[in-house]
Specification:
Layout lengths: L15 E5 L2 H11 L1 E7 L6 E7 L5 E7 L5 H13 L5 E10 L9 E9 L19 H14 L3 E8 L8 H6 L5 H5 L4 E3 L2 H11 L2 E11 L12 H4 L1 H14 L1
Parallel strand pairs: 1-4, 1-5, 5-9, 6-7, 7-8
Antiparallel strand pairs: 2-3, 3-4, 5-8, 6-9
Helix pairs in contact: 2-6, 3-8
Length: 250
């Protein structure tokens, strides 16, 4: 059952997986929010844990939380294996993102209804056009309900998943313009790197996916950002929203 990227055995991984990019965030969530936790993989130091989360309604669910690494290809590999080989039913990405709209404040949640991209990820499907993958509505509705119940500031809309980290992009030097600006003009709320690949994998394999992002750094107002040393506490709203949505979905 194990793969070159995942040492988990059959049955080690729950039907619902929370997928942060950073494996240390996976470890943090497992230690703080899950009970009866078992580490199920550490291949390439991409940590994964399975345990039980008890929701605010008293309902308990078995959940796996595992890192995905940075970028669409990395998230694509891990999510594909989870869906296809480990028969995971739903994946909720929980990640950080750069804001493309001036009204967003650091700490805001963005729930991705769909994802645009500059990647060639969807080329593998040999489609005669441009594919726009979407979130699972059931998961999204439960995440929105949770965010509302907690009073978390949140926005729903399209996101831009790029192969390029916004600050490390030669196009900015070549054109003299920020590469994210046209996507902001089209209404994308934030830029991440992974949502598009995750949503495509879910669509291709007939699974469910949702991406819940925390706006940590504004591309519009560069002085607005969450200090790195305070990011884990600032991400708690995202963690709770994802965990509660996962329990309600089961």
């Amino acid at each position: 059952m194990s793969t070159p990227h995942n040492a988990a055995s059959a049955g080690d991984i729950a039907e619902t997986v929370l997928l942060p990019g950073d494996p240390l965030r996976a470890e943090y969530i497992a230690k703080k929010h899950l009970k009866d936790v078992k580490k199920i993989t550490d291949t390439r130091n991409m940590l994964g844990f399975t345990g039980f989360y008890t929701g605010e309604d008293g309902k308990s669910a078995r959940i796996t939380v595992m890192g995905s690494g940075m970028g669409g290809p990395s998230c694509g590999i891990y999510s594909y294996e989870l869906f296809k080989i480990y028969d995971v039913k739903q994946i909720i990405r929980i990640g950080t993102a750069g804001g493309l709209q001036g009204f967003l404040k650091p700490g805001d949640l963005v729930i991705a209804t769909t994802a645009s991209t500059d990647s060639n990820w969807a080329r593998q499907y040999n489609l005669p056009g441009t594919f726009s993958p979407a979130a699972d509505y059931g998961l999204m509705a439960k995440a929105v309900d949770t965010a509302d119940a907690h009073g978390y500031r949140h926005f729903e809309g399209g996101v831009f998943s790029s192969d390029y980290f916004s600050d490390y992009n030669a196009l900015n030097e070549i054109t003299g313009k920020s590469s994210w600006e046209p996507w902001a003009r089209m209404g994308c709320l934030v830029q991440d790197m992974e949502t598009y690949a995750l949503y495509c994998n879910a669509a291709w394999l007939g699974k469910k996916a949702l991406s819940i992002l925390t706006h940590t750094d504004s591309c519009v107002k560069v002085e607005e950002h969450l200090p790195y040393e305070n990011r884990i506490p600032a991400l708690e709203a995202m963690f709770i929203t994802a965990l509660e949505a996962a329990v309600k979905q089961q």
